[in-house]
Structure formats: structure tokens, C-alpha cells
Design brief:
The chain is mainly alpha-helical. It contains 12 helices and 16 strands. The chain has one domain: Glycosyltransferase, CATH 1.50.10.10. Strands 3-4-5 form a 3-stranded antiparallel β-sheet. The protein has a 3-stranded antiparallel β-sheet with strand order 12-13-14. Strands 1-2 form a two-stranded antiparallel ribbon.
């Protein structure tokens, strides 16, 4: 029975990727004048809106990864479109790095260097290099890596600082978004540096990079993870003092599997063992305090309140995280969580006219205020879940 359900899952995830998610972006998001529209609403109407470096990088990663898996020429064509726009408009040729935000004509309107954006640029450029064999893409990824190490790494207290000005000077406002704390170091940025360094190291073996990746794994497991609760601490000052009690269920389960992949890439047996223990603790904590009765994942919680909205990206990352937990432990409780999440996504998150909705609330009402594409709404989380699970099921 489980085997039949897994085969059905393989078929459904493959169809979802090829027939719903990727076609939406190819049919609705591409601007024939270059780049991608900055905003698309739930009726699939596009708008002239600011364009984020993170969204462009995530589209580049998605279509590069999809091509690497399925060898569909249309995917590579879309990746080429994303790469060309990144190179032409988002790269700062004077000071290096990636601009945070452009207007709809491709002119920079926020030139700060958010390390989060550089990390996603790296992640995407490595994947594009593997898809296209364009050597400049790998060279640019290596350049971004060097900039992160030169400007962002804290040689005194360890870890990576959040953001800098165009000229790499200090900023007063370091936040990724209005909902974030204005602090020196965050889980979110560290997690995506780790993600990017993992992919870079898989393509470009380097002793120094390996050490940096080991250090990133240790930072996540020693400074950020609360082993007693199974949740990650999110916001820190320069000295690693905790500055918020917020818990993000989506980041917990996403971090669990990304750290395991990073540890594997280092080939450090001690770190691999610790990352496996962490993955199980985090997965169990997510089940205990993050899952609703219907199997979906709540958004976040503070000491006083749980935000019970179900965000698209968190459902996708939970599928991936529980799949990893199942693969490592062979405990079918995690597999059942994957199945239940997928049923929830099919029933409430997938839009009948393409892509996924941003979120639904606890009454299962769709959030139509946020569209299907935007500064933070991208194809990377859901596409990656489809790619990872279908590859894993096929290999097994």
C-alpha cells in the first residue's frame, strides 16, 4: 500500500512541476523586454512593480535545476533569460555584488548588498553553470563567495553580518523585510549562505570552502539550534545574544535537511552524525508543535500567540524535511506526514489557474492580497520539493 502511494506521489509531483508550476512562470512571468514581471496577482495579471534580486535568482535556480533534471530546452531558455537579466541589471560592476531592488525598467532603486541576495545569486549561478556550461557563471559565483567572506564574515565573533551599503559600508537598517528584527546576524541569512556554499562545494572542491562550510554547519548546530526544544533561534546581536523568542516552523524544517546536506558535503563524519540527530529532533518538534490536525504546517509562534496561517513555502519545505527524516530513519510516521501535507497542498494551496497561493488562514480562506509572483513569491520552494522528492523516489 505504501509503495502504491509513493508511486502515485511520484506521478503527481512530476505532473505538478511540469504541468502547473513551471508553465505558470514561463507563460505569465517573462517580460519580453527582459527579466520577469515584479508582481502577478491571483488572476494571473502582471504589473509593473519593483524587481528583486532574490526573485530573479530563485527563477534562475529553478529553471536551471529543472533543466538539469528533465533536459527540457524551454527550461534552459527561461534560465538563459534570467541569467542575462541578472548579469545586465542586478550585478554591481563597480563594487561587486547584487543589487537588492530594481524598478520595472531595470534601474537600481535599492543598491544595498543584502548577503541573503548574494547567497541566492551564488546558489543560482552554480546551478546555471551546471545547466549551461557557461564558465562565466561559475566565475561569478566564486566572486560572490569571495565578497561574502571578505565583507560579511565576522573574524572576531564568528558568523556572517546581514547587509552593507552599495560601497560595502555599514548600514543602520540591516533587515531583509519589515517583519524582521534589525539585528547583526540571523538564521535566515546564515541558512542560505550554507545552502549556497553546499552547492558551490559540490561543483568546485576547495579546502578553504570546505572549512567554511564545516563552520557554517557548526554555527547552526551550536549557536542557533535549541536542542532542548528542537527549534531554531532566529535573531542575534553581534555577540550571539538572542534578540527574539520567535519560532518559525518553516525555517525549522527547512534548516534541518539543508544542514544535513551541508554536513554530507563536508564529509566530516562527526558533523554528519550530529546533523542526523538534529534532523530527527527538529522533525519531531515540528510534528509536536507545528502541525495542525489536518497535517498542514502553521507559520510561526511567539510566547503569546501562534500564527496559524499556512504559507505555501512552509508546506513545501515540510514535505522535503519529513521526506529526509523518512529516508534517514525509515520510520513511516514521517512518510505519512509527507502524504498528508501533499493532500493539504492539493486541496488548499494549489491554484486551479496555475502556481500556488501565498497562504490560507485557519478557516482555509485564500490570501488573495498576496499574489502568485512578487518580491518574496517565487517558484523555488515548491519546485525544489518536486525535484528532490521525484528524484529520490525514482532512485529508490
Amino acid at each position: 500500500m505504501t509503495a502504491d502511494k509513493t508511486i502515485q506521489l511520484l506521478e503527481e509531483l512530476t505532473t505538478e512541476l511540469k504541468s502547473n508550476i513551471l508553465p505558470f512562470w514561463m507563460n505569465h512571468a517573462i517580460d519580453s523586454k527582459g527579466g520577469f514581471f515584479g508582481q502577478i496577482n491571483c488572476e494571473n495579471n502582471s504589473f509593473d512593480a519593483p524587481r528583486g534580486g532574490v526573485l530573479n535568482a530563485r527563477i534562475l535556480w529553478t529553471f536551471s535545476a529543472a533543466f538539469n533534471r528533465h533536459q527540457n530546452a524551454e527550461y534552459l531558455e527561461t534560465a538563459n533569460h534570467a541569467y542575462n537579466y541578472l548579469i545586465k541589471h542586478f550585478i554591481d560592476n563597480e563594487f561587486g555584488g547584487i543589487y537588492w531592488k530594481l524598478d520595472s525598467e531595470g534601474k537600481p532603486i535599492e543598491t544595498k548588498k543584502q548577503i541573503y541576495a548574494l547567497a541566492f545569486g551564488m546558489y543560482a549561478l552554480v546551478e546555471y553553470y551546471l545547466a549551461s556550461d557557461v564558465s562565466e557563471s561559475l566565475l561569478l559565483a566564486l566572486e560572490l563567495h569571495q565578497l561574502i567572506e571578505k565583507h560579511s564574515f565576522d573574524n572576531e565573533k564568528n558568523g556572517y553580518f546581514e547587509a552593507f551599503s552599495k560601497e560595502w559600508n555599514k548600514l543602520d537598517d540591516l533587515r531583509l523585510s519589515d517583519k524582521d528584527e534589525n539585528v547583526a546576524k540571523t538564521l535566515n541569512t546564515h541558512l542560505h549562505i550554507l545552502e549556497a556554499y553546499t552547492r558551490l562545494h559540490s561543483t568546485y572542491k576547495d579546502t578553504a570552502l570546505n572549512k567554511q562550510l564545516e563552520n557554517l554547519v557548526e554555527i547552526h548546530l551550536e549557536k542557533m539550534l535549541d536542542w532542548e526544544t528542537g527549534h531554531f533561534r532566529l535573531f542575534f546581536d553581534v555577540d550571539w545574544n538572542l534578540k527574539s523568542e520567535l519560532i518559525s516552523f518553516g525555517h525549522d524544517i527547512e534548516a534541518a535537511w539543508l544542514i544535513y546536506e551541508a554536513a554530507k558535503e563536508t564529509e566530516n563524519l562527526n558533523l554528519i552524525e550530529k546533523s542526523i540527530k538534529a534532523l530527527k529532533i527538529i522533525a519531531d518538534a515540528t510534528i509536536y508543535s507545528g502541525l495542525a490536525a489536518d497535517g498542514s504546517l502553521y507559520y510561526e509562534k511567539t510566547l503569546e500567540h501562534t500564527d496559524k496561517d499556512r504559507h505555501w513555502w512552509a508546506q513545501a519545505e515540510a514535505m522535503t524535511g519529513f521526506w529526509y527524516a523518512y529516508q534517514i530513519t525509515n520510520d513511516k510516521i514521517y512518510l505519512e506526514k509527507v502524504f498528508k501535507l501533499w493532500e493539504f497542498i492539493k486541496n488548499h494551496i494549489i491554484a486551479t489557474n496555475g502556481e500556488w497561493y501565498w497562504s490560507v488562514n485557519d478557516k482555509m480562506e485564500v490570501n488573495t492580497m498576496e499574489g502568485k509572483a512578487g518580491f518574496w513569491k517565487c517558484p523555488y520552494h515548491n519546485s525544489r520539493t518536486m525535484l528532490i522528492l521525484t528524484k529520490s523516489i525514482s532512485n529508490n
